[in-house]
Amino acid sequence: MRAMKPFFDTIWNFEGFEMVAFYLALFIGLLAAGFFIDMLMQRQGFGPLLNGIYALLGAFIGLYLRYNYFLRAPWFGYEPYVTMGLIFGSIAILLLALALVRNRVWR
């Protein structure tokens, strides 16, 4: 994911307040996403924290797919719909697949 290298370099170079603020915002966003997904999935969900972690994992899977397999065409400058579609699609597929496995295995 060479396209994400500047973003990751910025994150790894945070110090002091910037590091604390970034990771605190990441944790709060993770919990907010987990609560929202838990509210949508209700009994099929895994709880707010695990839903948030799975959403983060799904987002990274979507970004990985986007930058390694869905390369942008040379005549387009920016394709936000492909990126957002892959991120949200991979989160939805991951959560639905895990809910299906959980409901079939832990009965």
List keywords for this structure.
flat; 4 helices; 107 residues; mainly alpha
Overview of this structure, please?
It is built from four helices and no strands. The radius of gyration is 16 Å and the shape is flat. The chain is mostly helical and 107 residues long. The mean pLDDT is 87. It has one domain.
Quick overview of this protein structure:
The chain is mainly α and about 110 residues long. It has 4 helices and no strands.
> Rough shape?
flat
Beta strands, count: 0
Q: What is the arithmetic mean of pLDDT?
A: 87
Number of separate structural domains: 1
Q: What composes the largest sheet? A: none
Radius of gyration: 16 Å
Structural class: mainly alpha
Cα distance spanning the termini: 39 Å
Helix content: over 70%
The succession of helices and strands, N to C, reads: HHHH
How many helices? The count is 4
Strand fraction: under 5%
Blueprint (SSEs and pairs):
Layout: H1 5-12, H2 17-41, H3 48-69, H4 80-105
Helix pairs in contact: 2-3, 3-4
